[in-house]
Each structure stands twice: as structure tokens, then as C-alpha cells.
Amino acid sequence: MKKIICFVLISMLAVSCKDDDTLETTSIEISFANKINSQNIELNTGVYQTTLGESYSINELKYIISNISFIQEDGKIFTYPVEDSYFLIDEEVPSSKIISLENIPVANYKKIEFGIGVDQSNYPLNGVDNFVPTAQESQMLWSWSAGYIFFKIEGEYSSTGDQPDDDFLFHIGSHGTNLDNYKTVELSSDFGFDFTENTLVSIEADLSKLFNAVYDIRIEDKPDIQVDPVNAPKIAENASQLFSSVPLNSTE
Amino acid sequence: MSKVFLFLVLILCFACSGDENTYVEISENKKLDFPQPDFFPQPVYNLEENPPTEKGFELGKKLFYDGKLSSTGVISCGFCHVQEFSFTHHTHEVSHGVDGALGTRNAQPLMNLAYFEEFSWDGAAQHLDSFSIIPITTDTEMNETVSNVINKLKSDQVYSELFAEAFNNGEVNTQNMFRALSQFMVMMVSADTKYDKVLEGNSVFSEEESAGLSLFEAKCASCHKGILFTDQSYRNNGLSIDPRYNDIGRERVTGLEEDKYKFKVPTLRNIAVSLPYMHDGRFQSLKEVLDHYDSGVEPTQNLDPSLQQENNLGISLTETEKNQLISFLKTLTDDNFLLDRRFSEF
């Protein structure tokens, strides 16, 4: 009897400290490649065409990636800790385009979900305030509104499709509590995100879609879009359609 | 046998508590009691998420009065928010910042902030914890970057210790800095006025104050509503547009034409000491404010409907009525709050 009790207790002891069966974790990297016509963007010098016949160049391209989560085939979700889940992608800074995440449970995920911008339910809570210095240094903060700029593109355009020489700028964020321009993106992949095999995820953003994904944008109609309740949501919606996951060997 | 059993059960109890054991209990950092007044609504600020503590409050107060938060090292929050004047920039129409720079708006009083949903004249901040970004980074105010502030605090031994004592993770970071400032500010509850004493049955209004109260309820309380004396809405009260600022008000936050020239209806608690008045501090006395409502209202875009009834602009008031209203408004001054040593710089 004594032996049995001891055995039971010891075996309880042995298993009692295991959370569950997915203890194994890994670090992963997600790369973002900003492209137009399958080519990497050339800041300042590249000239591109919209489907409405305008031409444009890009001097600055920045956006906030947030709230990353990984979803398995059976719907099981792993959400990366919110306070560590804010990243600034800056086309000009190569290192910013590779996001490193730690302690991801090893599994074969079917989908990746992330946000563009900062969701209101988390701002300024859950440590999101700690992203303020980064955002401010990169001019991704509207100081007068205490809010983040989620997506920023600046450049020049020509309404006739010639050499661009008129300025345009889109600064998209939420307008107080009136209008929430935070968007989520869900990427699935036929080949999966199998972290048992490799730990790299490659995401491409096709910037040409910013002008036509859901809404056709004629830059000349409103070349300066900031706190604009009519046009900012259209840009935000288009921006949420830029992304796709690509097989690793096609990233170059 | 029973001893062995007990022993094993004990081991079992402790087996999984490894994480908790590394937690350092901060026993000396006492939680502060939030002074909820009887007649007030429930706080909007989430006091459980960021409970004011002795050390957090002390840290917040030190930050509030520290010029380190500005680029020149001399402009603190307290520079424009002076306690005796209900934490406003007394006698300054618009607030001054670094190197004598002039802002475009009048510093708002700080009190009862736990009950407010949005902050600043146009509601630009939706949470008290994020409000401080605005004065710290605005070029005509403290003109500093949040990164610089954090670096300055990190290199200061006293701050490192205070952050360590005030917060569980002990880090000198943006969130903890803003949370400490909020802890200091949410404790600023002002509810000890003659008005409150009358409500409690411990005082009575004079005849003139009573007459003022009746007028107030009839002519002012639709906007300056309830125990906080504001419905927290944004309205255009018919001020002429000052071409120096051409301040579009709430439109800057929402981008909506219908919000042009609208500003937050201010609380009237401690109004007698928080001059000058209006978002740009254009009026120096309550008499001037009432004169405006009586005869100065202009039909600018989005003028509030309550100020344009039956083709009459404003709120008509006789001189006697104005005096009665002013007598009533003076019952909203809370001397104990204005002199409360817990909030004072020295």
C-alpha cells in the first residue's frame, strides 16, 4: 500500500511540471520585401505607374506591423506577447525589414495573422506605450493626437504619367476614437509555415496595390491624405491587401 | 507512513511554484486608497490595471515637477499646471514652452481626471496614460523626444531606484513613466467645495448663490452637466475666430468638417481660480465669459444649436443674473484641493 501511494505521488510529481505537450519552442524570422512589379522598390529613383495612368516615385515608406499570431490547421492559435509585438518596417532601413520572434511553439502553422498599425483596445495599454520612442524617432507619431501613424508613404507623382514632380503624402492612422484605421491581415499558405522544417517566413508587399486593391486611388484627387475621414480608410483598406506570403526561394 | 505522505504532498505543493518564487514582493510599496467622492460616478480610469501606489505616486509627482522632461531641462509639467490655480497656467492666455515659445491653447486644469474619457481641448488623447506624449513632444511646449526623456531618467540613480520600487518589472520605460504620471494625476480628486458640502447637507447657499444655481440649471447645465459640470462633449460656443491661431478644434482629430471650431466643454470645478478662460485663454474674468454668452456669440460654422434659439444668438443674461451666476460658480472652488500638500511641488 505504502509503495503504491509513493509510486503514484512520485509519478504525479514527474508529470506535474509539464505545461502541455508543445514545450518545444523556436526563434523565427519574418522578412518583409516591399515590391512593385516583382522588383524591390527603388526609393527616390524608381518611377512606377498606377492603373489610372499616373506615375509616381516613393521617397519614404514606413508601416507598423503588430499583433502577430500563428494559426494551426485545427484552429489552435499562438498569439505573440502583445507588448513585444510591435515592429516598424522602414524601406530605408534593411534591418527593420526582418522581424525576429522568440519562443514560438514549434508546429506546422497554416496561417499567420498580423495587424497594420496599433489597435485601439491595446493603446496605450499592455506595454504598447513602450513602442512610443521607436515610433517617435521614425516620425510615426502624431504628437498632437497622441496617436500612431500606421502607414506612411511619401513621394512625387505626375497625373499625366510623366516624370513625377508634384509631392504626395499619405499618413494613415486612427482618428481619435471616431475612426479606427487599424487593419488585420491573414495570410495562408499552401506550403504552410512549418517551423519543424524551417524558421523563416517570407512576406511580400506589392505596393502597386496601394492604388487599386479595393479602391482606385487617383493621387491627383487628394495628394495629401492625413486625417481624412473619406480617403484615409480607403488607403488603409488597400494597404491591408498588399501582403502575400511567398516561398522562401523566391525572396531574392 | 503519514509523515512520508505529508512530505510528498508538500513537495508536490511546491513543485510547480518555481516562477512565483523569483517574484520579489514589494511590501513597502503600499497601495493608495482612491478617494472616491460619494456623489461622483464610477471612475473611467482603470484603477485596477494601474493602481496608484505610494511609490508610483511619488515617482509621478517627481516626474510632474521635473524639467528633465523638456529639451531645455527647465520646463516641467508643473510649469504650465500650477496647483494654486487648479493646475492651470495662471494669467497666461496660451501656455509658454521651451525658450519662451508660445503655444496656441490655454493649459487645462488638472483634477478629477479619473472621470474623463478623453483629454485636451479637442480630445486628442483617448487615455490619460497617453496624454503626456502631447506636451512632451510638442515643439512649443516641452519639445523633447520620449527616447531622450527615457535616457535621461535611466542615467539618474534616483529615478532608477524609484522605478524599481514603484513597478513590479522595475524598468525605466515609457509605459511605467506614463503610468506613474497617471497615478499622480488620478489621485487629484477635487470634491470638497461649498457646492459639495451643500449636497451633503453640511452647508447652505446664500440667497444670491441659490439664485445663481437656479439660473445655472436653467441656462448652463445642459452642457455643463452633472457633478463634473461637463457632459464631456465638443461644441462650438460661438467665439469669434482668432486669425492668429485659426484653431479648427476637434476637426484636427477627426478630420470632420462638422467638428470644426468645436472644443471640449470644460469642467467648471475650481473655475473661479482657473482663469484665463476658453481654449485660447481670451477671457480674463468670469464676467467676460458671461458677457460673451450674453452678447458676444457669433454665428460661426457649427455653432452649437443651444446657442441659437429662435434667431437669438447666445444666452440672454441681465447684469444681476451674471452676478448671481458668478456667486454660484465661486461655490465650486475647493481650497483644500488647491492647497493640498500631497500635490504641491515643495
Task: Characterise this structure.
- The complex is a heterodimer of chains A (252) and B (346).
- Chain A has 252 residues and is mainly beta.
- In chain A, 11% of the residues lie in helices and 42% in strands.
- Chain A has one domain.
- Chain A has three helices and 15 strands.
- In chain A, the strands form two sheets. In chain A, strands 3, 4, 5, 6, 8, 9, 10, 11, 12 and 14 form a ten-stranded mixed beta sheet that branches. In chain A, strands 1, 2, 7, 13 and 15 form a five-stranded mixed beta sheet that branches.
- In chain A, a hairpin with a 7-residue loop joins strand 10 and strand 11.
- The longest helix of chain A has 14 residues.
- Chain B is mainly α.
- Chain B has two domains: 136 residues, Cytochrome c-like domain (Cytochrome Bc1 Complex, Chain D, domain 2), CATH 1.10.760.10; 143 residues, Orthogonal Bundle (Cytochrome Bc1 Complex, Chain D, domain 2), CATH 1.10.760.10.
- In chain B, strands 1-2 form a two-stranded antiparallel ribbon.
- In chain B, strand 3 and strand 4 form a beta hairpin.
- In chain B, helix 3 packs antiparallel against helix 8 and helix 11 packs across helix 14.
- Classes of the chains: A mainly beta (252), B mainly alpha (346).
